[in-house]
Design goal:
By secondary structure, the chain is α/β, with parallel strands linked by helices. The chain is built from six helices and six strands, in the order βαβαβαβααββα. The N terminus and C terminus are likely disordered.
């Protein structure tokens, strides 16, 4: 990897029940600062498919839109953070992704997933096999710049600290609602800095 490489294209992955519309402000913010921004709709977006199959959609999009040697940066919101982790950790994305940011992602599961007894919902329940498998070798994310952004007031990710992991950078942003995390200016500022940072980042911070 070239540590002095120019800005990478950024791929945004939305959460359950969301579409690319949720990234309207984030996309505009990054494009104004000269990032090439990509996003697409996970289909279906309601938990009907397992998260590994949604991760396959990320793999397919990247294969179709980028050359095999093009490094990219990846941002996943909520369920999109876990889908993105599967792509990075299980589908070879670790070889292309240089900066990886999750926003309010249920890395250790969320109690709200019990209300969605579909394949994708079950894979976000606390202590489920899917998340336990990803977390057993989470240290591999230290190979890239990893950043987790979360809010203690999250009513979708319960407990909110499920969004914290023992690798990379950790930022707490006191946003009142889950969906506001992708448009709050503090979040966008952290993302800008994380995408601009030299490879690679380690440590813990708070906002």
């Amino acid at each position: 990897m070239n540590l002095e490489s120019p800005r990478n294209p950024v791929l945004l992955i939305h959460g359950i029940f969301d579409t690319t519309t949720i990234f309207h402000e984030m996309s505009a913010y990054l494009k104004e600062r000269n990032w090439e921004v990509h996003s697409f709709n996970l289909t279906p977006n309601n938990g009907l498919l397992g998260l590994e199959r949604l991760a396959g959609q990320i793999e397919k999009y990247i294969t179709q839109h980028f050359s095999s040697d093009q490094p990219i940066d990846l941002i996943g919101f909520s369920m999109g953070g876990i889908v993105s982790r599967y792509y990075v950790q299980r589908l070879g994305g670790i070889s292309l992704v240089q900066r990886f940011i999750t926003i309010s992602a249920p890395h250790h599961g969320t109690q709200t997933a019990y209300f969605y007894p579909l394949p994708g919902g079950k894979q976000m329940c606390p202590n489920c096999e899917f998340l336990d498998d990803l977390n057993q070798d989470i240290e591999m994310l230290n190979q890239l710049n990893f950043t987790s952004i979360w809010t203690p007031f999250d009513a979708m990710i319960i407990p909110a600290k499920s969004s914290q992991v023992p690798v990379g950078e950790d930022f707490q942003v006191d946003v009142l609602y889950h969906a506001w995390m992708v448009s709050d200016r503090r979040t966008l500022s952290i993302i800008e800095k994380a995408l601009s940072a030299p490879l690679r980042i380690t440590g813990t911070s708070s906002v």
